[in-house]
Structures are given as C-alpha cells and as structure tokens.
Amino acid sequence: MALFHLFLLITILMVIIPSSINAYWPPSPGYRPSSKFRSMSFYNGYRNLWGPQHQSVDQNALTIWLDSTTGSGFKSVKPFRSGYFGASIKLQPGYTAGVITAFYLSNSEAHPGQHDEVDIEFLGTTFGKPYTLQTNVYIRGSGDGKIIGREMKFHLWFDPTRNFHHYAILWSPKELIFLVDDVPIRRYLRKSAATFPLRPMWVYGSIWDASSWATEDGKYKADYRYQPFVARFTNFKAGGCSAYSPVWCRPVSASPYRSGGLTRQQNWAMRWVQSHHLVYDYCRDNKRDHSLTPECWG
What we know:
Elements: H1 2-22, H2 42-45, E1 46-50, E2 55-58, E3 61-66, E4 72-76, E5 80-90, E6 99-106, E7 117-123, E8 132-138, E9 152-154, E10 165-171, E11 175-180, E12 183-189, E13 202-209, E14 229-242, H3 264-276, E15 278-281
C-alpha cells in the first residue's frame, strides 16, 4: 500500500510540475534567429549620438545612464533597408518610473516630421511592479500632429533586471517580427505600403526621461533621488541589407524558410506569450479610431 501511495504521489508531481512550468515560461520556439548572426563589438556597428559623458564601453558591453542633467543615446554607423537587429539588455531594478530604455529603428533624422520608426521600449515602473515592454510601429507619422502609434505591450515572463536577455527586431519587406530570447512576441505584416515602413532606417538605443507618459500614462514621474538610472547593452547583432547593399541582397528570415514567416512551433510560442503576457493591443482598444489603422481589420 505504501508503494502504491508513493507511485501515486510521483505521478501527481509529474503532472503538476510540468504544467506549472509551462504556465509561466513560453514553449520553445524551435528555430533561433539570433544564432545566425555573430556578435559584434559596440564600436564596430555604433557610435555615440548624444550624452557622451553618460556612456561607457567595457569589453564590448555598453553602459548608458540618465540623471537629472541628461540621458544618452547611440546610433548605428549605417542605415539598413531590412535585417535582424538585436542586443542583450539588462535594466535597473527599483524605482524607474518615467524612464524609457529603448532599442529601435528610425529614420527621424532623414525625414523629420514624417519619419518611420519600429520600437522596443522598456517603460519604467514603481516599486513592486513589473516593467512593461512596449513594441510600436510608426509610418510617416511623427511630428505632424497626427501621430499614429501601433502599440502592443507585454509584461515579461522573467525579471529583466536580474540578467541580460536578448531583444530583437527582424524587418523584411513582408513583415516585422519582435523577439525576446528568440521567442516571437509580435508579428506585424505588410498589408499595404501605407501601413508599413519601407524607407531605410538606422538602429538606435537610448535612455531618457519620458515622465509625461511612460508610467501609467504619466501618473508617476522620474524621481531623481534614485539616480543614476542605468541600462546595460551587450551581444550586439545586426545583419541584413544596408541601404548601400546591391539590389539583389536577400532579406534575412525569422524562420528556416527563406521566404520568411514563422514555423508552427514559433507561432505556438507567440500565441502563448500573447495569451499570458500581453497587456495592451491597439487593435483591441475601442477608444482608438481604427479608420487610421486599417491593418487591424484588413
């Protein structure tokens, strides 16, 4: 009888433990796009853009910080027309309300007032609350008074302040895919030229004060009693077609298929993330004017 009870207990544990793990950690995506690109040193691909006194490089790891005087930002040496762009990032714990740490694509300097942008942004938070990872897409729409954001926000399945994790944007002429540790969290398809970024963009990173909106719509501001606010970047990866590549340069893919798209396993992982960790989707926001975002229903 004791052996039967022991066997029953082991069986129950085998059922409970995997299910509890799967409830909090995404299934494996199978294919890992980051493995197709070599890491590079910061200065091989990037330069300081602003706040040089708030930026340091040590053994290929970049540290940038914000205090009451300024933040800091960097920019890729060359623009791209498609590619894979990733970095491993570690965020600051504690009170970081109002502070944005960003890794993104943009052509704002080439097209002021009408630029395209693809964002991964970490929205700072208050004690005891998780960071929000915001993904966003702008198309020819900033600075003209008619900014149309396409935000999807997530609470991650891990604490991004404890270790480095790899965040990436894959941009091809057909789609945008946002990845966290190679797990796809969002796929944005090209449904029309009017709703997709097609002009060359540079890769940027920054840390800055966005107290007016970053944390609970501006309810909580940056508190410089907790300065400096620090972000660390390493394991930089960038590959694809630069703006100077020949016309026959082939866009990279997020899947084993050269044509792009995601595998069934990648789609499963993405659906899991969106079921468990998505906290905002602009397409489901009834307060939005969706005539301005036709891709939601197209």
